[in-house]
Amino acid sequence: MEVGPEVFSERRSPPADSVLAEVFTISAGGIDHTFLRRFQAAQSAPLRFPAPLRRRPDPAAARRAGAERARPAGGHRNLDKRFVGRQICGVSETIAAEPAEWRRALIQGAAWKTFRLLLPLGLLLLGYKLHGLWPEAWRGRIRVAELHAWELRWFGVSQGDALVTPAAWWQAHTHPALDAVAGAAYLIFVPAFVVSAFWWSFMRRREAMAERAMWALLAMYLAGYVTYFVYPAAPPWYFDHYGAAIVPRAPPEAAGALRFDALVGAPVFVKYYGQSVNVFGAVPSLHCATAFLGLLFALRLRSLRAASLALFIAVTFAAVYLNHHYLVDAVLGAAYAAAAFGLFGLGRQPR
């Protein structure tokens, strides 16, 4: 459709600082050849693919390049408006002409990364279900008094004239606020680790290290499941109920987490521990191990360090306060996390 003089009664020049001033020239007779030549040049400009198909540049190199750019008096970096126009035209043409390529790029950049991150978690859950099916004959001798004696020797607390474990001492010094904090920390320890891995992958662009963190989590849990059968150990609540006696078919129990259920008015931990496949899985404490592994990767990546440290402290406190673990279990859990981090988290950081 041709635009006549009745529409544009006079030539109007766009503002000098507008992007249109660099690309468009409007005359009384319509769009002149200046625009056409520049538009054709924009179509032939090299296409910059979306971020999922490009390798992320080196942050140090990007900072050096940014420092070398000229800065006007206002403090803002110069912007090549013609370059912006070429990029807009080129990317718009690609989206319109090849939408399937862009859909493939989105799949590769988001869904595929999500699958790679969640694959170790799926294998972890499968391993948890399967390790409860191991024959009873494969399990080693159940340890009950051994861990209790170690705890009294290394971390014993005086209560009156007696020496008690920290877990037993906390059962006499409970508070609803502590119940809420401990219960919440005990619920979110795995989701928090997974969220951290997604943060490192999608927000910090450390895809390879985030995947290493998830595989380290899987390796640590598998090692813990094997330990549960080689060295089955009773938790503190078991010793409170049965003493040093060995009851192979003892039912699982939520112990101090029942106070959290009473606080929120819902059987959260009753259902969770009612489905437990192994009562004698105190060593190592995988709760503490998971939180400590997250802290090690946070320190390595220099991201979420404060949050990871706070979660580790909260989970370790909850493990003892809720009468689920001795401090010995927490220390051994941290050792398992350190071993998994040594296998997957050390060395040169991949891009």
List the helices and strands and how they pair.
Layout: H1 20-23, E1 26-27, E2 30-31, H2 33-43, H3 59-68, H4 81-97, H5 99-131, H6 145-155, E3 157-159, E4 162-164, H7 166-171, H8 176-203, H9 207-230, H10 236-242, H11 258-264, H12 268-274, H13 286-301, H14 305-321, H15 327-344
Helix pairs in contact: 2-4, 5-8, 5-9, 8-9, 8-13, 8-14, 9-13, 9-15, 13-14, 13-15
Characterization of this structure:
The protein has 2 domains: 20-97, no CATH class; 109-344. It is globular. The protein has helices at residues 20-23, 33-43, 59-68, 81-97, 99-131, 145-155, 166-171, 176-203, 207-230, 236-242, 258-264, 268-274, 286-301, 305-321, 327-344; strands at 26-27, 30-31, 157-159, 162-164. The protein starts with 19 loop residues before the first helix and ends in a 7-residue tail after the last helix. It has 351 residues and is mainly alpha-helical. The model is unreliable at 1-32, 49-54 and 69-79 (pLDDT under 50). Strands 1-2 form a two-stranded antiparallel sheet. The chain has a two-stranded antiparallel sheet with strand order 3-4.
